[in-house]
């Protein structure tokens, strides 16, 4: 697979910092494999850290627990329009003399962000049976990610299938954490990452959506009563 421009940028930054063979770089396991691939490309070893369950970004507390004598850098990735806690991560980096890198998301025009926020506010005030995103003033809702609780992935996947049958274009944002992918398998305990991969579902909040479309999506979700029986 050809590396993306974002991954190539991470590779260049790591190389410029002199990071390579023998070094470890702490990265999130919740997301795609691009960051871990960039670490491997410079000859270093990715170390996977857990996420904050509200923001889905790398958890500074778990990063601190992962820091070892070979740790050379930490890569924080902003996720779904949430911001990683860069203040805590930079303080940690300064304390341990570790480079802290930041992977952003593509910026959206102000008008689009405002519209997405309005859609998100409407959904959060009306959805039942799912855990809605934790909103804050900086959230740009690149994706509106809810959690379908219950028995994990079977419930979420069954919930998604019913919504799609009703015309709701929902997606599973992260199907497999990176530490479970071939080539990156690690025997590490990342409970929040695993739980998020099993429960999360992204509902559409595109700026062009109409109020009627939002109403139909709320009705479709709420009609399910929140939880479904596991699909076998």
TrEMBL record:
Domain of life from the UniProt record: Bacteria
SUPFAM superfamilies: PLP-dependent transferases
Alphabetical keyword list: Aminotransferase, Pyridoxal phosphate, Transferase
GO MF annotation list: transaminase activity
Family the UniProt entry places it in: Belongs to the DegT/DnrJ/EryC1 family.
PANTHER family: 3-OXO-GLUCOSE-6-PHOSPHATE:GLUTAMATE AMINOTRANSFERASE, TRANSAMINASE
Name by which UniProt lists this protein: DegT/DnrJ/EryC1/StrS family aminotransferase
Organism name: Streptomyces beihaiensis
């Amino acid at each position: 697979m050809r590396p993306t421009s974002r991954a190539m940028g991470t590779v260049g930054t790591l190389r410029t910092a002199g990071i390579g063979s023998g070094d470890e770089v702490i990265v999130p396991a919740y997301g795609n494999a691009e960051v871990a691939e960039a670490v491997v490309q410079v000859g270093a070893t990715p170390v996977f850290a857990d996420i904050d369950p509200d923001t889905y970004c790398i958890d500074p507390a778990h990063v601190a627990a992962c820091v070892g004598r070979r740790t050379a850098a930490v890569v924080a990735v902003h996720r779904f329009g949430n911001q990683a806690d860069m203040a805590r991560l930079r303080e940690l980096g300064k304390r341990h003399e570790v480079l802290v890198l930041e992977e952003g998301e593509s910026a959206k025009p102000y008008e689009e962000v405002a519209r997405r926020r309005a859609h998100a506010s409407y959904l959060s005030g009306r959805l039942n049976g799912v855990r809605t995103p934790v909103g804050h003033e900086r959230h740009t809702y690149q994706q509106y990610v809810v959690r379908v609780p219950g028995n994990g992935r079977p419930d979420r996947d069954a919930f998604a299938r019913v919504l799609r049958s009703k015309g709701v274009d929902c997606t599973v944002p992260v199907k497999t954490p990176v530490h479970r992918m071939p080539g990156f398998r690690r025997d590490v305990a990342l409970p929040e990452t695993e739980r998020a991969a099993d429960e999360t579902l992204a509902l559409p909040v595109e700026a062009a959506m109409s109020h009627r479309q939002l109403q139909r999506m709320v009705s479709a979700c709420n009609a399910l009563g929140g939880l479904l029986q596991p699909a076998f």
